[in-house]
Amino acid sequence: MKKLIELLISQRCMTVVNGLFFLAAIFTYNGMIKGGLLFIAYFAWLAYLVFCAKNAASKGSKITFSVIIVIVVILICVNLYFYVRKVI
Fold first, then answer.
1. What is the pLDDT of residue 8?
2. Structural domain count of the chain
3. How far apart are the C-alpha atoms of 10 and 19, rounded to whole Å?
4. Of the candidates 37, 55, 57, 61, which lies 20 to 30 Å from 9 by C-alpha distance?
């Protein structure tokens, strides 16, 4: 469990999340790959932020992570709306 926590806090985990966003940006054609990859990146980022918020040392860090989590949820909802609207 301790190794998993160290992995999630490390720069390596954020590199994976950034890589998912980069791959979503590369596949810019209209199709399921871009939409699916973008949502996977958003949910990976959301999971990373939730984990960091739970393990934050100070109250200020927890508030900052919570605000960013709210922004990510809004981004997911807006992108999901436009994605469903485009598909239907």
1. 66
2. 1
3. 15
4. 37
